[in-house]
Amino acid sequence: MLAAFSPLLPEAVRLGSQAAAGRLTLRTLQNRPLTELALLLFCFNPASVFFTAVYTESLYTAFSFLGLWLLPGNHWGAVLAFVAASATRSNGILNCWFLVHKLLMDSRQHGRLRVRASIETLLGCILVLAPYVSMQGYGYLTFCSSSAVEPPAWCTDRFPSLYGYVQRRYWGVGFLQFYKDPARLPMIVTALPVAYLSIRGCYRYFSSEPLRALSLGILSSDRPAPLHAIHSMPAFLRSPLAARLRKQGKARRQPLAGYLGLPVAPYVYHWALLTAVALLVMNVHVATRFLATCPALYWYLAHYINGSAPGSDDGARGKARGCWVWAWFGTYIVLGCLLFPNHYPWT
Questions:
Q1: What does 237-277 look like in DSSP terms, one character per residue?
Q2: How many CB atoms lie within 10 A of CB 275?
Q3: Is the pTM of the predicted complex or chain greater than 0.85?
Q4: Which of 105, 275, 319, 335 has the fewest CB atoms within 10 Å around its CB?
């Protein structure tokens, strides 16, 4: 009975992730046309084969997007969703960043770190890390503390990690390790589109507002913070930011919106971190699947395709961009459906 319905489970989870993605995107971008385009891109993303197969991608994405949607108003609901995400995939522990950024924004608003908010953030991060730490602890107790089994070499490492050992030993994961094997270099081609767009998207966001980039998305020239909030920041950030605000004085400009808006900042930082990990540490050819769980990727693509006024030269260029993005999506969907079920390496 369960086997008969098992093919439907990934689709049900995928629908849940799409619903959470739609609500999260509309709240963040505050732009319905961009939201609709971004959601359409997510529904037909180039790693779709992993979202429709019995795989962890759709479940992890659903929990992560649910947590991000709940986070502003329901801290502990978001934490529980993030715990489920980190129990599904190890990169779920990076969702701690969103809890930390929420604390930073709270400290900006109140001009200080509030004790209650700090404790909630610390406990939330501990809970999100718990599944990963528990897995590592179980592995250590099983293989390193049993007298009946000869301890493997990784047990004597300064920081013994079963997960890290398996990744290094069987998958060749490590800083720039992927590029040392000439036989695997052709597989880099499959990651070029997502790598190019990720680097371009992060650069576009950070270059649009240097103050925001330097302050981890806490400050913006169109929403400057009072100087008492600046003084609570680390010294290496305090001086340049305070000088920048004094220089601006009372000058104002049109606030950035959509993908370039201030609410997008924590998602772009998260996207930038995952991009760096995918290109420098992981097997690069899985970057498409790895980065397909970042909401900022689809927000930037919607901005990339539809961010210009209709009828202008930029609008015509946006149509051309849309053609190649959808061609990339369609090609990878078809190739993924052919290669992945037949056990060929794919994203």
A1: HHHHHHHHHHHHTT---PPP-GGGSGGGHHHHHHHHHHHHH
A2: 22
A3: yes
A4: 319
